[in-house]
Amino acid sequence: MKIGKVRLVILVITMMMLNLSSCSAWFGNKRKSGRNYILPDEAMSSRPSLMNHAAGSSIVFPIYGNVYPVGFYNVTLNIGQPPRPYYLDVDTGSELTWLQCDAPCSRCSETPHPLYKPSNDFVPCKDPICASLQPTDDYTCEDPNQCDYEIKYADQYSTLGVLINDVYLLNFTNGVQLKVRMALGCGYDQIFSPSTYHPLDGILGLGRGKASLVSQLNSQGLVRNVIGHCLSSRGGGYIFFGNVYDSSKMSWTPISSIDSGKHYSAGPAELVFGGRNGVGSLNIIFDTGSSYTYFNSQAYQALITLLSKELNRKPIKAAPDDQTLPMCWHGKRPFRSLNEVKKYFKPLTLSFINGGRVKPQFEIPPEAYLIISNKGNVCLGILNGPEVGLGELNLIGDISMLDKVMVFDNEKQLIGWGPADCNGVPKSRDVSL
Q: Which domain of life is it from (predicted)?
């Protein structure tokens, strides 16, 4: 049963303790060959004149895809010398940006573009970016000149690779184009979950760690350490790095101190169904790496009970033969759009408890937790987290962030949201949403 991807990092293992494959030997041989990777002058983002022009600006990328039937959102990045396009899965639930890599690759999936051929500019093992990808601070280096990593995601997907530096071609909103050298992963051994496989070149990691693309851009003085996205219910949208929003039109809640990891967590929050019937005190993770929203068992079962009660006398019935998602309903005739069926469902609200009088409200209307399947049934896009190995985690996935601008401010440690038209990509040099 296909339920969409869950791209939340749950474990990072230092590869110095593992028996590395021949791919690692390839890197070792190449590094010791005596060839030095030289970055051309025009690619050096550290040139003062270019840095001054870009500093304080922003970067906006168009996004492609949808929750259903595509099952993911992706962005195109131009990487390498010369720059080549790659399609990357947008993921705020992990920090490392990586490409499937010809090093050579032992287990790479089909990709839209030829496999990335890595540079010879290795990130050292004790570099702070490498350290941020290891499970402990006292990790061991098998080779001090090379950073090996393994990342495991919640959907049993994993990638094994080596960290290198290469050039990203980036267009800033003030009209400046720069080639910026930053670290990325060369993933030469991937394990895919068949139910969540998508033909992409790699993953765009936007989490809170040092390896995150926005963290690296910020460390070079190019943008503020702020990311955001706007996903359209019609498909597509955009992501941005830097100041591309109007904070006065948004609701804000602090990033939770409970989560010591690198996720965008908030809470506790009360889940309210239809304006009443609150459920629990939930800690929430906002994760574009997840197509759907996942609640822990208590919240999920409470929601199913309330839904069943509300739909008892409505003209829709359970459709167990539709395996698109775990819970679907059919009408007297196939539904063509959510507009035909959303009247039977009530909105959900996450009411965040910040200790003050004002409780920020994250609204989830029926359109943000339902889909229409290809069989013409309406299906619930909120799933039981423990069934896919998430335990007590509560993830707000793509479906519940549609038609909202979401902002993750790593400098002020705040998460913000507000209603927005996500169908067009801002084009003005002085972008304001």
A: Eukaryota
* Set 91, 143, 148, 403: catalytic member: 91
The three-class DSSP label of residue 371 is strand
Q: Is 40 exposed, middle or buried (0-12, 13-18, 19+ CB in 10 A)?
A: exposed
Query: What span, in angstroms and rounded, lies between the C-alpha atoms of 427 and 410?
Result: 24
Choosing from 89, 201, 287, 403, the catalytic residue is 287
57: its two tokens:
């600006």
Say which amino acid occupies 187. G
The phi, psi pair for 356, rounded to 5°, reads -100, -175
CA gap 400, 176 in Å, rounded: 34
Write out the two tokens for 419. Answer: 């209603």
Name the amino acid, one letter, at 287. D
**How do the pLDDT tens digits run along the chain, 433 residues long?**
335 667 676 544 333 333 333 333 333 333 322 222 233 334 444 444 445 555 568 999 999 999 999 999 999 999 999 999 999 999 999 999 999 999 999 888 889 999 999 999 999 999 999 999 988 888 888 899 999 999 988 777 889 999 999 999 999 999 999 999 999 999 999 887 766 567 799 999 999 999 999 999 999 999 999 999 999 999 999 999 998 777 778 999 999 877 656 789 998 999 998 877 678 789 999 999 999 999 999 999 999 999 999 999 899 999 999 999 999 999 999 999 999 999 999 999 999 987 666 689 999 999 999 999 999 999 999 999 999 888 899 999 999 999 999 999 999 999 999 999 999 887 644 443 3
Q: What is the DSSP letter of 401?
A: G
Is 91 in the active site? yes
Residue 269, SS3 per DSSP:
strand
Cα separations in angstroms, 129 against 96, 99, 182, 192: 10, 17, 10, 25
- Catalytic (active site) residue 102: no
